[in-house]
Structure formats: C-alpha cells, structure tokens
Design a protein that fits this description.
Blueprint: E1 2-3, H1 7-21, H2 26-48, E2 55-56, H3 63-77
Parallel strand pairs: 1-2
Helix pairs in contact: 1-2
Amino acid sequence: MFVHTEADKRLIRVIRRDTIERGRSVDETLRRYEKSVRPMHLQFIEPSKTYADIIIPQGGKNKVAIEILSTIIQKWLL
C-alpha cells in the first residue's frame, strides 16, 4: 500500500513538525528539506509506489479508502 500525499502538503507537515516539535527555524527546516528530505523521498519513497498493490490518494484524509481498507483488514482478522 502506498499513501500518496501532494508535495506541498508533505512540506507543510515537515515545517510544522520541525519547528514545533524539534525547535528548528523555518530556514533550517527548508535547508534540511532541500538537502535531505526531498532527495531521499524522490530516490527511495516515490519509486516504491510502482510496487504497491494499492495507491491511496489524498493521504490520510481519504475517508473512502480508509473505510475500504478497514473492511478488508477486519475480514482478514475474522
């Protein structure tokens, strides 16, 4: 399963997390994002999408996909 989230939303999440939880400045966070986070995403995470059986668009906000997956998992557990 691959949960796809748009790049701008991923960046917003990183900025919020790094500034609030890790005490980094916005500039420091953006430098880290450009130098490490984005290149690693493009090199390792994005290519893994081709191997996914299911791609869920809209990240964790896709209520329909979450409901479908919940139903499938519940059936497996029974």
